[in-house]
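Let's study a protein:

___
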Amino acid sequence: MKYSIKQQIAMIFIAVMAGTIILCWFINNTFLENFYINHKTAAIHSAYDSINEAANTGDIASAKFDVELRKICDMYNISVVVIDAQSNTIKSSSRDTEMLIRRLYDNVFSPRDTKDYLEETEHYSVAMQVDWATNTEYLEMWGVLDNGNLFQMRSPLESIRDSVKLANRFLAYVGVFATALSAVFIWFVTTKITKPIMQLKDISEKMTNLDFETKYQSQGKNEIDLLGEHINQLSSTLERTISELKTANNELQQDIRKKEEIDEMRKEFLSNVSHELKTPLALIQGYAEGLKEGINSDDEESRNFYCDVIMDEAGKMNTMVKKLLTLNQLEFGNDNISMERFDIVTMVNNFLQSADILLKQNEVKLRVEEKPPIYVWADEFKVEEVIRNYFSNAMNHVSGERIIDIKYELLDGKVRVCVFNTGEPIPEDAMPHIWEKFYKVDKARTREYGGSGVGLSIVKAIMESMNQQYGVKNYTNGVEFWMELETK
């Protein structure tokens, strides 16, 4: 921005004012002298009329006329002399009457080309002449009154020129001062006028950067204030529109991300299911073909073994498919959460009673912390599914002292349920992946007990659907899985 609007307005006003003063000075310098001369000529004519009238009425020698004549002469700086035909002085306003009489004779008898005539009639003549003795220019009028008397009037023009120079000089001083004073005043006024415009400029600049916080503060109801109100309305409309666009864009991004996640999950699901079903299907196919071909057909024990393998692998496949369907419902949000208030201690104890036979068959020692009823808010069926998966995981990995320990930790508004089993800790590099579908730390051992690798994924999906925390912690003698539930 080379010049601001404030500078432009101020420069225009200052230039107009300075130009006006310069024009006035030029007009004065060019025409004021002629105007003064015309005014002086009119004054001499007025004095001639008064003298001629007084001469006709015979009052020219009266004291009253003396006062009137002195007043005229003093006012217009005019010298007057009136003589009769015998050169006797009748009236004179000058101390040097003889000089005026000589000027009268010179004007009457000197050559005409030495005078600059302004007016000439049969009774008088008006001309500008230079007095060579003093080198001073005069405006002179001479001629004959109606009663036959001769007269001579003169007024110096140097005083007119001095007055013109003085007037022009004074106008120049006043002009410079007025221009400077006006410049300050105009700068102040333009600052006040352009302040709201600059405010609108700043607001519009912020709007280009999508900053809609600043609003125009209206001071009145002029055009600038109306413009400011319209900009405020525009700012609010743009802010609302951009907010709606961002919301729509965010929803679109979420939909795209969700679609991508669903596609990725579908691909991963198909890949993992294909991998997990490949081994049991191969076993079922192999043993079924063996039965069909009559391998060891005479050995009933072998046939039963073949059938047991087929049934066992089919059962594992059935269990895995059920778990995958459960996990699929949880991950896609198709399974509703029913928040209920129930006693978590009672629920865990009831589950452990049903699992007592498994503990005895696997020679596992169970230790349960005795606690009074602890009521929690959660989906009871899904919490029991988490406990079942934690317990099954502990049963499948327990070793060493073969102890499973279940305890409760009361926190601020929550309870943490922990399931610990003695055995080998989980490798550190496997810790971030144990919640992923089909991930197995020890694939050989998992195959041995028929694990599908989706149990902990179901735990993850259930806990996240209830917005609760869960996790795992390694110890030197075992592993502890935990979950948190709200008590308030």
Q: What stands out?
A: Confidence is low (pLDDT under 50) at residues 443-450. The two ends are 64 Å apart (CA to CA).
